[in-house]
Design a protein that fits this description.
This protein is of the alpha/beta class. It has helices at residues 2-19, 24-31, 36-44, 62-78, 91-97, 114-124, 138-146, 170-175, 187-195, 208-218, 223-229, 242-253, 270-277, 309-312, 333-336, 352-360, 369-380, 383-399, 403-413, and strands at 54-59, 83-88, 105-108, 128-132, 151-156, 181-184, 201-203, 233-240, 259-265, 284-286, 300-302, 318-321, 342-344, 363-365.
């Protein structure tokens, strides 16, 4: 099975190189890994791994980085002598956070071939490796195990349908032996690990709650957005896909809605931005073109950059979070932490926070444009109900904080 896995990785790398001829994101994936090992070796050369142990954090993409960021920052504070290496698999993470100041080095993760895995671990020589949420790269895990490097997964979440828990999954389950400790998001994940004999797990919770709470406390200011929003209710549509925009379009077209709108599509490529612009008839301006002078002239602000959505929710009256009509619901904790009632599509049942908040009544699942506009009208007509929902949202985030502290307690007491 290991050979089959490695052949699959080789094929994946080949297909990405072909895709790079036509696709900008694939091109970034390929070009970002050119001369990776020589650059990595040069960057880490001379590091005294006794005085300054290298702690390696890995995030698949930007969302996983934001999820693990509270632990990275807490680790830096607790162990200032350590050096932090941060790696990304996806360009959407690396290209946005390659200058992240609390990491000593930021690199792409190499393709998980056996040779690459061995070379990576030899160059880095980590004191420990910490993977955020998922990204089980089995050759890399094997190389870490052979070098006796402690491996941790934080905010990890398992589901019954994953290959680890299927009848054919014995090889995949064996790979979990490389992991020193799992910090699971929920009880279900811990029970699934227990069912295959893995007892090295703590239910620590989801570090995203710590991250979004920190964002709400910091209140990063955006003067041009404040100028755009001044004196208006604001409806923020975050991480949207085409299916979401089809539901949102009647609301966006309604000049009597009483809202100004911010649209932050999941994909900010030029083609996606043009797709949205072609479907909006009201005055719209791109964030990249927004100034204090022109901000008040538009009804709709289109975010054409990545990495600023979470703090923008502070300006929202209501929010819609995309992905619920197909790709998988995106992060609703970001608006919820500001006490913002949220709307989303029906594909939310794999996301505990959405299930919980639907049951509590703080957020809304909608299946059509008519259902969306009707729910908004009813909520805006009842200020007391709005305040009640807002309080539900804030309390939910507050009650679920603390995962970072639980994880760091383990690291502080198990050096």
């Amino acid at each position: 099975m290991g050979l089959v896995y490695s052949l699959g990785v080789f094929l994946y790398g080949f297909l990405l190189r072909v895709a790079a001829l036509f696709n900008a994101k694939a091109r970034l994936w390929v070009t970002g890994r050119r001369d990776l090992f020589s650059r990595l070796d040069s960057a880490l050369a001379g590091t005294d791994r006794v005085e300054n142990p290298v702690v390696w954090f890995h995030a698949s993409s930007l969302g996983e980085f934001e999820q693990g960021r509270p632990v990275i920052e807490a680790y830096r504070k607790a162990f200032p002598g350590s050096k932090i290496l941060l790696t990304f698999f996806s360009p959407s993470g690396y290209e946005v956070r390659k200058s992240y100041g609390l990491a000593d080095w930021v690199f792409y993760l190499p393709l998980d071939t056996p040779a690459n895995a061995r070379r990576l671990v030899e160059i880095v020589g980590p004191a420990k490796a910490i993977f955020i949420k998922y990204d089980f790269w089995f050759n890399i895990l094997g190389a870490l195990r052979r070098q006796k490097v402690p491996v941790f997964f934080i905010s990890v979440k398992f589901r019954p349908g994953q290959h680890f828990f299927r009848w054919y999954g014995s090889w995949f389950r064996k790979q979990l032996d490389s992991v020193t400790w799992f910090f699971a998001q929920n009880d279900e994940s811990a029970l699934l690990l227990h069912s295959v004999g893995k007892k090295n797990v703590t239910v620590a919770g989801d570090t995203r709650f710590d991250r979004v709470f920190a964002i709400s406390e910091q209140r990063q200011s955006f003067p041009v957005v404040e100028q755009f929003a001044a004196g208006h209710k604001v409806f923020i549509c975050g991480s949207t896909w085409k299916e979401d925009e089809a539901v949102l379009l009647p609301l966006l077209s309604d000049r009597d809605s009483g809202f100004k709108f911010v649209i932050a599509p999941h994909d900010t490529s030029p083609d996606r931005i043009r797709y949205i612009l072609d479907r909006i008839s009201r005055p719209v301006i791109r964030y990249s073109e927004l100034t204090l002078e022109n901000a008040s002239q538009a009804d709709i602000l289109l975010i054409d950059s990545v990495g600023i959505l979470a703090p923008l929710y502070q300006y929202a009256t209501l929010a819609y979070v995309g992905g619920g009509f197909g790709a998988g619901l995106h992060n609703i904790q970001e608006p919820v932490t500001f006490g913002i009632p949220v709307f989303f599509g029906p594909g939310y049942h794999k996301f505990k926070e959405a299930v919980d908040l639907v049951a509590l009544g703080g957020v809304f699942c909608v299946r059509s444009a008519e259902e969306l506009t009707g729910s908004i009208s009813a909520l805006m007509a009842d200020p007391q109900e709005y305040l009640r929902l807002s309080e539900i949202c804030r309390n939910y985030v507050d009650e679920n904080r603390g995962a970072t502290e639980r994880i760091m307690h383990y690291f502080k007491t198990n050096r």
